[in-house]
Design brief:
602 residues; alpha/beta; Rossmann fold; 4 domains; five-stranded mixed β-sheet; 19 helices
């Protein structure tokens, strides 16, 4: 049976059919839909959770795996940084069931703060890694990953990239499902990691990697997929770049010996030697880093093969960002000394300019504006974090001075405060991000008696990645309702002496609250409570009345996409199809010209 599936849906569905017992993770584009697919298709036999962060997700899964379960953990490449501590140790400790860690890489980057290549982490952690080239292959590979994990008692990394995660394809779906029953936890000294045990396990890890490499030499995800008679040149590739290479060869109407690597680590050396035989030059096409390229160089050097290997290291391929059909086609034509392919690109109308901006009616805009007005004329630094509110850096708000990684805004603000104690330092963080990695930073500030204004932007969801629940919402992925974690009580329990809650759309009260917090010694916390606009429908809309003086303060200070200047009449207008009735513009209008009365039907 064939189904049209997104790559992430294919991965989730394949995991169910592979007998997965537990799935945990933290939402992050481009990985999010994997866990959500399992939750939607769950018949009740699989435990599924959004964990507070990736470290917790991996540790929960580790507990289940040493009890004999088949488990899957999902995250994006930046999340692997958070999960790396337990994963490194688990590689040495081993597992009893099976564990597949899905880490979605984001070349570009399209929605991330880094371009990381998880294939490096596989080598560093001494773990096998699967690198699918399409949604169809991702579907087939997942079961192989589970089987390999169970065979060698090791976690296995699975590395789809954005274009595989979010591409859609017609996937041949199997009807049978493996029913895997965990054997349960059996007490054994091997589950307690000690230096001596680690040394012994390291020896076994290296032995297993050699055995896995032998398996990978025969694995159908690694193939010499094309041959060309009498050729002296070959192309090696992996991941989504394989699809680009195949299409480029088709466009160029040529053939070349082609090596596809679906398991970059441990590297299938014997297959690589077969590929190299008789060649004098190879072009390597891959994203992001020269992983396959370096592996081929190592194989060539080890076996004293005289061959020229081109790729990222010599500049034949770009060393940052995504590949594309056009870039790969150009590289292959240059490599094979072919005439440039002439084809007419499809003429598309120019896309409208849409810079990243907070949504119309977003409560974060009101929160930033309240802080900005309260701190006018004072020396203040605004430390941001990862989430929708990072967009507060855009004009005219200009309210995010730093942004490093999840949870870091709170601790960076502390470092700045120690160097510049005459400034007021704010740390903005979302509710989901606060539960993810914000709590330790607050404890650090309280313990070290640092002056800091903590601003939690509580919009009751994980908005940036698609509105997933978190501990502050009380909802779970098992369709149960748990007691909500009360942010105010939590902060008080951590030792924060001043905690205030306020609706950011109550502008006067919000400004007063910020001014008081800025004068407080130690850690002062403000919880701006207002739901994300995606969680409700507007009850009222606003319009511009005749008393408007065209001062354009609403445009210049808020940057709301619903408010603009009409190009014909030169008057300020509110787009009724966008307005969410948040009232912020009405509160700052000096002429009181913004009034309720828009068309609610829009």
């Amino acid at each position: 049976m064939k189904q049209l599936l997104m790559g992430n849906e294919a991965i989730g569905l394949a995991a169910i059919q592979a007998g997965v017992n537990l799935v945990s993770g933290y939402p992050g584009t481009p990985s999010t839909e994997v866990l959500e697919t399992v939750a939607k298709q769950n018949d009740g036999s699989i435990y599924v959770e959004w964990s507070t962060n990736e470290k917790s997700a991996l540790e929960v899964a580790a507990g289940a795996a040493i009890a004999g379960a088949r488990v899957m953990v999902t995250m994006k490449q930046v999340g692997l940084n958070v999960a790396s501590d337990p994963l490194m140790s688990l590689a040495y400790l081993g597992i009893k069931g099976a564990m597949v860690v899905v880490v979605a890489d984001d070349p570009g980057p399209i929605s991330s703060q880094t371009e990381q290549d998880t294939r490096h982490f596989a080598e560093y952690a001494k773990l096998p890694v699967f690198d699918p080239s399409s949604p169809e292959e991702a579907y087939r590979m997942i079961r192989d990953a589970f089987d390999l994990s169970q065979k060698y008692h090791t976690p296995v990394l699975f590395r789809p990239t954005t274009r595989v995660c979010h591409a859609c394809a017609s996937v041949e779906v199997k009807e049978e499902k493996i029913e895997h029953k965990p054997q349960g936890f059996v007490k054994d000294a091997k589950w307690v990691i000690f230096p001596r045990l680690t040394y012994q396990n390291h020896i076994q890890i290296e032995k297993n990697l050699r055995l896995i490499a032998e398996d990978f030499n025969q694995y159908d995800g690694n193939q010499i997929t094309e041959t060309a008679p009498n050729t002296k040149k070959g192309v090696a590739c992996g991941g989504i770049s394989y699809a680009y290479v195949k299409e480029a060869l088709n466009r160029a109407q040529t053939h070349v010996r082609l090596l596809k690597i679906g398991t970059p680590h441990p590297f299938p050396e014997e297959l690589a030697l077969q590929f190299m035989e008789g060649l004098y030059e190879i072009l390597v096409v891959e994203e992001l880093d020269p992983v396959i390229e370096k592996a081929l160089l190592l194989v060539a050097g080890k076996h004293h093969i005289k061959i020229n290997i081109l790729g990222k290291l010599d500049g034949s391929m770009k060393n940052a960002g995504e590949n594309s059909l056009e870039s790969v086609l150009t590289a292959i034509e240059d490599f094979l000394e072919l005439p440039k392919t002439k084809y007419e690109p499809i003429e598309l109308p120019p896309l409208p300019v849409r810079p990243p901006v907070l949504c119309v009616g977003c409560p974060h805009r009101a929160s930033f504006y309240a802080v900005k007005k309260a701190m006018k004329g004072q020396k203040a630094v605004f430390c941001g974090d990862i989430g929708c509110y990072t967009l507060g850096n855009a004009q005219p708000l200009d309210m995010v001075d730093t942004c490093l990684c999840m949870g870091a805004g709170i601790t960076i603000a502390q470092g700045l405060q120690h160097i510049e104690p005459d400034a007021v330092h704010f740390a903005f963080i979302g509710d989901s991000t606060f539960f993810h990695t914000g709590i330790p930073g607050v404890i650090n500030a309280v313990y070290n008696q640092t002056d800091l204004v903590l601003v939690i932007l509580d919009n009751s969801t994980t908005a940036m990645t698609g509105h997933q629940p978190h501990p502050g919402t009380g909802k779970t992925m098992m369709n149960t309702v748990s007691p909500k974690i009360d942010l105010e009580k939590l902060l008080l329990a951590l030792g924060v002496q001043s905690v205030k809650k306020v609706n950011p759309f109550d502008l006067t009260n919000a400004i007063t609250c910020v001014k008081e917090a800025a004068q407080t010694k130690g850690v002062a916390a403000i919880i701006f409570e207002a739901p994300c606009i995606s969680l409700f429908k507007p009850e009222k809309k606003y319009q511009i009345s005749d008393s408007c003086t065209s001062c354009q303060r609403c445009i210049k200070e808020l940057g709301c996409p619903a408010i603009s200047k009409d190009s014909i009449s030169n008057k300020v207008v509110i787009d009724q199809s966008l307005c969410y009735g948040c009232s912020l513009c009405a509160q700052i209008c000096p002429a009181k010209a913004i009034v309720i009365g828009g068309d609610k039907s829009c």
